[in-house]
Specification:
Bound molecules: oxidized coenzyme A
Number of helices: 20
Largest sheet: 6 strands, parallel
Distance between the termini: 61 Å
Radius of gyration: 28 Å
Shape: elongated
Structural class: alpha/beta
Strand order of the largest sheet: 3-2-1-4-5-6
Helix content: 25-40%
Amino acid sequence: MAKKIAKKGKAKAAASKVKAKAKTKMAKKPALKVVGKKLAGGSHVGGGLLPRVSKKPWGQDGKALDGVKILDFTHVQSGPTCTQLLAWFGADVIKVERPGQGDITRGQLVDVPGADSLYFTMLNHNKRSITLDSKSKEGMRVLERLVKTCDVLVENFAPGALDRMGLTWERIHSWNPRMIVASVKGFGPGAYEDCKVYENIAQCAGGSASTTGFHDGIPLVTGAQIGDSGTGLHLALGIVCALMQRNRTGRGQRVLAAMQDGVLNLCRVKLRDQQRLKAGPLKEYTQYGLGIPFGEATPRAGNDSGGGQPGVILKCKGWETDPNAYIYFITQAPVWGKICDVIGEPEWKTHPDYATPPARLPRLKQIFERIEQWTMTKTKFEVMDICNPLDIPVGPILSMKEIAEDPSLRKTGTVVEVDHPTRGKYLSVGNPIKLSDSITEVKRSPLLGEHTDEILSKVLKFTPREIAEIKASGAIGEVPKAPSQKAMAAE
Ligand code: CAO
């Protein structure tokens, strides 16, 4: 009897293996290899099948996006940040660039004459580059093959540019129904959908600028590239979700991340405040304590904390000469007593004007001035050392110089040193998202057209004769001599 059950079990497992094989065959070059058995319970991903649990050591069973091929038609910042992330997670990112010039950022903000700029190198790690005039007949022939070979096309051209090139969604979908077409645009459908958009325009249109700055000053843009890199991040999530859905449906889809939408998503708390205004003034804003009336829209909040715990930036020792000798200090309610002790105002713990958060709200300016008298006697790091053990939330204003030299950021790979054949060593921001089983290795950005030959022959399988024809047409321009792949991997 037991034998019979075991036999039945084996037959079932074999059947599910055959099913899994058939499914794998059906999906041309699937992003995930489905070889496992149906699980008895728990979560079922991609049609109810999960592979067997790997026995390999952590970080040694490939990368999260191994097998995913990206046709990277991105330029400037927003799109490249997205495809760089995908490359760090293991996707094979093939960057298609215009012959001769390439991504315009290669030559922008140049610091080392003759070398690719930091603007380009810091946004295009781990990619391969092919030069292609997509507006030529032979260029389109190569593009068609790329579309048929890749899983995802990512682009951030101006609205309509892809269509003008002849790459409409319908055409792409007819060539490869599994292809995901992911786009960054400035705006979603609506009055501004045809507009070209750069970072700061998105910050303004997405609600960030109107809420950044001091209440009596002009709107400000922030240094964080929330319009470009922020939208690239949104797009990357959309692509990964579309890949997951494709595992179930077999078909690709369009993914759109509009910069205005991405910025607004990051400004969510400001739309929260817009609606709270109907119920009266925003009491946690410094403006309230100063008796300045609120208008119709969420005002600029200076350095006020966006949450329910009041916080501001305070001077520290050395502020007269060091532009970054400041600390962010939050008067979190549960540690109010400890704050009072630290600054030498123990009676504030019980005084009716200071003991409770509502009592403190109209006096925030005066309270923070008192705290600042204390922080000015300490360096920002001394304030950290005193406050952190007491659970008082504080954060130093770190300069880019301090961040570049921070040993723990180097250790985690968030700041990495990369070597480049024409510009030498430079610092970059590595992958800020850490996966315990998909370890990021940051590899230098490609030279313009460095991989044109290998992509034409090895990825797209053009014959030497076909490659000669493509070259003769001028569709790929001049191909520079490239260091071998081995040399690149060794760097
Ligand atoms: N071969 C031939 N032509 C190519 C090509 C190639 N390999 N790659 C690009 N082109 C062409 C495009 O087809 C387009 O031609 P048409 O205008 O004739 O259709 C042209 O190059 C320029 O594309 P573009 O309009 O996208 O570039 P731009 O420099 O004028 O504008 C930008 C740049 C960023 C404003 C615009 O691309 C845009 O709004 N993108 C969407 C929003 C976005 O991502 N903004 C973030 C930018 S980072 O701050």
